[in-house]
Amino acid sequence: MKSRRQFLQHFSAALALPALAGWTNKPEASLQGPVLKVAIMGLGSYGTRVADALVGCKRAKLTGVISGTPSKIKTWQSKYGIAEKNCYTYDNSDQIKNNPDIDAVYIITPNALHHPYAIRVAQAGKHVICEKPMALNAMEALEMVNACKKANVKLLIGYRMHFEANTLEVVRMRKAGEFGKPLFFQGLSGFRIGDPGQWRLTKNLAGGGAMMDIGVYSVNGARYMLGEDPVWVTAQETKTDFQKFKEGVDETIQFQFGFASGAVASCLSTYSMNNLDKFFLNGEKGFAELQPATGYGPIQGRTHRGALALPHVTHQTTQMDEMAQIILDNKVPEIPVDGAEGLKDMKIIDAIYLAAKTGKRVDLKF
Ligand code: NAD
Asked: Are residues 105 and 93 in the same domain?
């Protein structure tokens, strides 16, 4: 039986969570099985956001954790009601193999750990959900795709915007020909990064700088907004703070794409500007603009027809309910979120870095 203290902890957590996730005044979600049982690996800031969002899911549920910090495990256990037998460290995480309470592991660690742990999770026979950027480069991404294929488990990338209503409406309009032939995409992705000691500014853990962390949204967005993959890339890097942004950690990169249809894209990725989160799509007959385009919401949009006003739902709640259906029901999402999709972005990012370094146009084949 629960002690009074445990009961109060659960009770206060239950009261606090809806407010944290912005669900005030919404009825408590009830599960509608079959339910995807998820363990989160990496209990940091985004892991916590996903855990809070999972409370509102109907088809997914947080059942386990993998962490190197025992005190965080304890806090999460009492906050989310996670059983002791579903708690793991990075060292013993392979033992999830024998745990029927875990169907999938959501990897929300610094970027460098995505590749080794995705492979270990796959080898343990569990589905992999992995945060963006999927890996440090295309080679690693390909190895992850192959490992999941070999283990017969699904690999999904945490592209939450692929399930966001305003984004999906723009994609629907583009597919319906409402913009005419799409000709131009502009993607602006940036924020001003703080603490110079954080892993995001450490090449070994981040794999790069702003491009890996935030520029990836414009890379990915160019593809789903235009509905096409680029065939060439050019890029130019600028750096104003050589102390904060060391060798291999990009501060600002402008990049351009060309597409087989004749469409072009012009994008900016930066760690030096706040309020930079905008997508613009222009076609022969119309346009769409999303600003903010990829933040936690609400997403604001308008097209040549007027404002887009689709209601805001916590992105990660929709994402996890949809991912549960992709994994358990083989549902096919409107915009792919699988390993092949993440691999394309990693190939493009590799090409952007090469183009920025050499000053030359880099051709792409998928
Ligand atoms: P964070 O620093 O807040 O959390 C990272 C977690 O990993 C921490 O709990 C830390 O203890 C743990 N960790 C394990 N090994 C570590 C190591 N060697 N060094 C440092 N930390 C280690 O970071 P975050 O913001 O939660 O980002 C985690 C991942 O999620 C990144 O890949 C990031 O790109 C991604 N992310 C995605 C979104 C999104 O909207 N999809 C938003 C934020 C972050």
From this structure: yes
Residue 318 lies in a domain: no
Q: Which of 40, 41, 46 has most ligand 1 atoms within 8 Å of CB, for mutation? A: 46
pLDDT in tens, 306-342: 999 899 999 999 999 999 999 999 999 999 999 999 9
CB 47 less than 6 A from any atom of ligand 1: yes
Q: Domain of 260?
A: 164-310+339-363
Residue entry with tokens 């990012």: 349
* Catalytic pick among 88, 106, 159, 217: 217
- How many angstroms separate the first and last alpha carbons of the chain? 57
Give the three-state DSSP class for 26: coil
Judge whether 330 lies within some domain.
no
Question: Distance, CA 258 to ligand 1 centroid (Å)?
Answer: 32
Asked if residue 317 belongs to a domain, the reply is no
152 & 8 share domain: yes
Task: Provide the number of structural domains found in the chain.
Answer: 2
| 3-class secondary-structure state, position 314 | coil
Q: pLDDT, tens digit, for every residue of 90-135?
A: 999 999 999 999 999 999 999 999 999 999 999 999 999 999 999 9
The reply to whether ligand 1 has any atom less than 6 angstroms from the CB of 41 is no
Q: Of 160, 176, 194, which one is at a domain's C-terminal end?
A: 160
pTM over 0.85: yes
61 is catalytic: no
Tokens matching residue 223: 């593809």
If asked whether residues 231 and 168 sit together in one domain, one would say yes
Q: What is the predicted pLDDT for the residue at 61?
A: 97
pLDDT in tens, 248-268: 999 999 999 999 999 999 999
Instruction: Return the ligand 1 atom nearest residue 48 CA.
Output: 26
Q: Is ligand 1 within 6 A of the CB of residue 44?
A: yes
H or E element that contains 84 = none
Sign of CA dihedral 251, 299, 293, 50: positive
Q: Is residue 137 part of a domain?
A: yes
Determine the atom of ligand 1 nearest the C-alpha atom of 69: 11
